[in-house]
C-alpha cells in the first residue's frame, strides 16, 4: 500500500473571473423563418434548407407560430423537418385541425446544442382547392444551465468539484472559502494566505476525496493548518508513483 503525506494548508478566499467569447457573425440570439412566399401559398417541387446557429453555450427554442402544409400520412408529400445534426427532432405537416398529418403544437422545440437544421419540401402537386401557405416559426437562444446537467457517465466527476455557477452562455467553477481553483478551472485546492494580526485557527476544509482510496488524519486537528493527513489506496489499487512517500509542505 503506498502512502502520500500532505500538509493541509491555510488559505484565503478565491477570486474567479471568466472570459466569454463574442458570438460569431453567423449566429444570432433570435430570428424568424418562414416558407417561401409566405403568407402566400408555397410552390410545388420545392426543397429549402435553413441552418440556425446561436452562440456556443446556448440552445435553441423554436416555436411554430403558424403551420399549414398539405397533410399526408407520415408527411410523405410535403413537410417541414427539424433536425439536430443527423437526428430528426420532428417532421410536421397538416394544420392544427387536420386529421391527416402531424402538427407541432405550440410548445417550443428545444435543440440539445447551439444549432438546428430545418428542411422544407413540397412534392410536384399541390391541391388547387386548398392553397396551403406553409409555415412561420420564431426561434431564440436560451442559456444552457451546465450546472444542472447530470454528471458525465465516464467517471470524470462533476463539472466543478465544489461550486458551479451558471452564467449566461457559459458557467464557471468556484471554491469554498480557503480553497483556490486549480489550473484545470474545475477542481479546488487548499490555498495559502498571509498571517494577519494575532494567531488564529485556520480551517482548511475537508481534504479532497481520493478515488479508490481514503484519507486518515495523522496529527493535528482535522482540517486545520499544518494538520497531516495520510492518503491510501484501497486494494487492489496502488499509487503509480512507485511507493515513495510524498510530502507537500508550505
Ligand atoms: Ca404538395
Ligand atoms: Ca450557462
From TrEMBL:
Q: Where is the signal peptide?
A: 1-27
Task: Tell me the SUPFAM superfamilies matching this sequence.
Answer: EGF/Laminin (SSF57196), Spermadhesin, CUB domain (SSF49854)
Query: Which Gene Ontology CC terms are recorded?
Result: blood microparticle; cell surface
- What PROSITE patterns does the annotation carry? CUB, EGF_CA
Its predominant location is other
- Boundaries of each CUB domain copy? 19-142
Record key words, sorted: Complement pathway, Disulfide bond, Glycoprotein, Hydrolase, Immunity, Innate immunity, Protease, Repeat, Secreted, Signal
Annotated source species? Gambusia affinis
- Return the protein name: CUB domain-containing protein
| MF GO annotations | calcium ion binding; serine-type endopeptidase activity
Amino acid at each position: 500500500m503506498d502512502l502520500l503525506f500532505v500538509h493541509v494548508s491555510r488559505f484565503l478566499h478565491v477570486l474567479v473571473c471568466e472570459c466569454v467569447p463574442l458570438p460569431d457573425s453567423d449566429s444570432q440570439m433570435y430570428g424568424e423563418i418562414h416558407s417561401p412566399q409566405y403568407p402566400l401559398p408555397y410552390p410545388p417541387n420545392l426543397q429549402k434548407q435553413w441552418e440556425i446557429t446561436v452562440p456556443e453555450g446556448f440552445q435553441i427554442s423554436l416555436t411554430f407560430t403558424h403551420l399549414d402544409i398539405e397533410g399526408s400520412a407520415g408527411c410523405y408529400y410535403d413537410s417541414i423537418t427539424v433536425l439536430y445534426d443527423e437526428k430528426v427532432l420532428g417532421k410536421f405537416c397538416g394544420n392544427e385541425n387536420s386529421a391527416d398529418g402531424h402538427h407541432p403544437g405550440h410548445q417550443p422545440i428545444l435543440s440539445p446544442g447551439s444549432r438546428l437544421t430545418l428542411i422544407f419540401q413540397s412534392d410536384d402537386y399541390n391541391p388547387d382547392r386548398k392553397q396551403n401557405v406553409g409555415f412561420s416559426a420564431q426561434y431564440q437562444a436560451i442559456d444552457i444551465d451546465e450546472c444542472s446537467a447530470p454528471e458525465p457517465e465516464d467517471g470524470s466527476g462533476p463539472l466543478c468539484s465544489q461550486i458551479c455557477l451558471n452564467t449566461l452562455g457559459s458557467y464557471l467553477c468556484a471554491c469554498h472559502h480557503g480553497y483556490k481553483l486549480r489550473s484545470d478551472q474545475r477542481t479546488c485546492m487548499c490555498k495559502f494566505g498571509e498571517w494577519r494580526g494575532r494567531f488564529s485557527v485556520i480551517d482548511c476544509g475537508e481534504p479532497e476525496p481520493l478515488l479508490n482510496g481514503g484519507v486518515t488524519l495523522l496529527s493535528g486537528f482535522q482540517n486545520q493548518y499544518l494538520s497531516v493527513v495520510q492518503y491510501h489506496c484501497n486494494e487492489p489499487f496502488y499509487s503509480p508513483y512507485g511507493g515513495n512517500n510524498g510530502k507537500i509542505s508550505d
